[in-house]
Fold this sequence. Notes:
- By secondary structure, the protein is α/β, with parallel strands linked by helices.
- Helices cover 33% and strands 20% of the residues.
- The protein contains 18 helices and 19 strands.
- It has helices at residues 16-23, 44-50, 73-84, 101-104, 125-129, 154-162, 177-181, 183-186, 208-213, 238-248, 263-272, 287-291, 315-324, 339-350, 366-372, 394-400, 417-424, 432-450, and strands at 7-10, 30-35, 56-58, 90-94, 111-117, 137-143, 167-172, 191-194, 206-207, 224-230, 253-259, 275-280, 300-302, 311-313, 332-335, 355-358, 376-379, 406-409, 428-430.
- A 9-stranded parallel β-sheet has the order 7-6-5-4-3-2-1-8-9.
- Helix 10 (238-248) runs parallel beside helix 18 (432-450), helix 13 (315-324) packs across helix 18 (432-450) and helix 15 (366-372) runs parallel beside helix 16.
Amino acid sequence: MSPLPFHLVTLTHPEWEKALAYARHLGDDALPELRLDLFPEGDPEALVDALKRRCLVTCRRVSEGGRWPDEDEAGRLAHLVKALKGKPLWLDLEWDLPIPPAIQQVRTHVRLLRSIHVPPGVFDLEARLRALPDGEAFKWVGWAGRLSDNGRLREPLTWARDHGIRLSAFLMGPKGLPSRALQSVWGGEFTYAAPDNGPAAAPGQLPLSTLRAWRSAKLHPGHGLCGVIGDPVLHSKGPAFHNPRLQGAFKDLVYLPLACGEAEEAVEALEALGILGLSITAPLKLSLPEALGLKGPLNTLWRRSPEAPWQGANTDAEALEQFLSKLESGPVLLLGEGGVARTSKAVLEAAGRSVLQVSRRSPVPVEAVAAFAPVGLVQATSLGMVAEDPAPFPELLEAARPSARWAVEWIYKEDTAFALWARAAGLRLVEGAALFEAQAEAQSQRFIEGCGGAS
């Protein structure tokens, strides 16, 4: 009998041939999950045979996020029995469902994974572990309403591991991402992934290549957690930047996106997850440090252990200082009023540059900008996070064009409307990507030197 590998990859491709081609190149660390409800026209036995038996067969009902009609339970079970004629290695059967006789008869050549998807707000994992159904592996799936909910999985997963129970327990939704990536840290035996060339099968499911890049299968209980916290953060380049550096420094740390927009919720999650290092992004650069008794704005926090006090830095300021020293001196038009704008203003004024700040709540007349004759412009609003975002205050940009010589764009997405305007105006542009790399490099050093985790 084949054990479950760490990665179970749901074949979500719209065409079976594409799914099959992908499954044939998965590697030994991943097992394809054949969702019969996603390929209803295919013959179940033939689909299993095409995968050479190496698969987990599932047929998910609509009520559990699948496509098989809830009212056709007899048809669903018949479909699963047909698949068993192909002798798959594993079969997913619902936790509370008695094993049908037709399935019990073939238990000699198939292992059962018993699964349950509970509604939002339900957290009955510990009770279920005390009354396990017949099966060789178990999957419990809940919903993350708050980031700290992930921490509720640690003790039951560790208990299951210590008692030899092959369990995966994770939370769906963007706030449940840590539970998917930290399974092996907490004692989980496997986790689910999306194919790299297909859509996710459930909210929060990560691509296989991402889990591999984070080395999720090789994480152990001694690994500490770092991450980027804010909302939105799932787009962040932080994990791709920091994880290779942490791995290269032989630190037992993993860096993940942590979706959270409220300081109170963030503080709760810091303790529930034992977080050791943070990159802070909007809207928490001011509120989270203050909630921890630190003076903001800060974009970096770290501590040696969950019991140690927090240390903080503003590597955004360090990065801007680095580039500002190479830019022509003179007055600066600053766009925005949030944490990044506050940091920018402090750096500019410390360098002896006069600053004219404008925001939606503090507008400035076009004539005032023209009279100010700024040499530089700093774009510190959130405009540019979405591709369709326009450039901020276009009439003020045009008023500044005759005197402007350089521009700074804090948004690190390529070709924001502001960046395009600055290039068209012939200005020397400090791109958001350059600022990101400079500040992130300084963050990595803090995490490597200041956070726990073996090295």
